[in-house]
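G.,

No rush on this.
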Amino acid sequence: MRRLALLLLLLAVLSGCNTLVKTPVVVMKDLSVVSVDPAGAGMEVYLRLKNPNNFDLKLYGYSYDLKVMALPLVKGGAREEINFPANEETDVRIPIRVAYADLLEILKRKPDPDKIPYQLAAGLDLETPLGQMSVPVKHTGTYAIPKQYRPAAIFGKIADFFKF
């Protein structure tokens, strides 16, 4: 009987372990183009994670799915370790690479360059003292293409190059 009581107590404690780890709060801070080269565009998603726990959490990987104007633009992920100190906020940068062919599909729809709608779905895979957890990130917003990366500016630079 004592063993059964001990087993029931252990099960009760273990089933309550999930309540011992508070889910971090993740906020999307920014989406920006950081480079343009012959292969495509480099973008970065900036997130801020607030760890409400009294212990550190560790990122061991992430995944993302970015849609622009409801079109799938890019999916990916990586294994990367970042430590999230207890009771602190930490910024996370997720690099994204977009091929020109994918960008052309967006441009064919003639979006307003000041208000291009996008949806980001991501998942942060975290290690806690009680095991692993995945924190979903969902964000919908609009993006304004920086003037120097707009097609008119790029084609203008090409035309200026050939004028000598």
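When you get to it, here's the other one too:
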Amino acid sequence: MNDVKRMDVISLLGPLRRYARSLTRDEAQAEDLVQDALVRAYEHKASFRPGGNLRSWLLSILHNAFIDNRRRRIAELRRLEQAAELAETAAVPDQESRVRLQQVQAAFMSLPDEQRAALHLVAIEGLSYQEAATALKIPIGTLMSRLGRARATLRDFEAGHDRPGEPSAKRPGLRIVGGSDV
């Protein structure tokens, strides 16, 4: 485009901005839209017919740029919605399981040292009874006895009867202090 036509483009910035504001309803988006339209016009300046209406041509490019941007945003929103539908949006809350795990850990840690050591070697490390008894330097019968007591304590914990390390869940007997028993 020659200098005269460039001057015509500069004189058309006002109408381009007004039209862009009416389309976008936002000042910043309107400025971006005008910029996009002017870049497109410069890139496709060969398509402008000599003697044609420059204002109509630029407004048409601006309108097409607006439509293209809107279609792109709508397509992007659709893709995001589809991705959201595919993604698991609700996660199972893990607070209860964490609390439960902490309770089980506390129960395990409150076992007497010899029971905890025996249970750890057999249940967690996967040693056989003979290997665990050898590691602890105790007879296999003693190991089995300690395992039995540890498991019984943990079963009671699971049943809610008596939590290791906490006072008994049983209600204490009541007695009357300083009064009559009538």
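Residues 54-86 form the longest helix (33 residues). The chain has eight helices and no strands.

Enjoy the weekend,
O.
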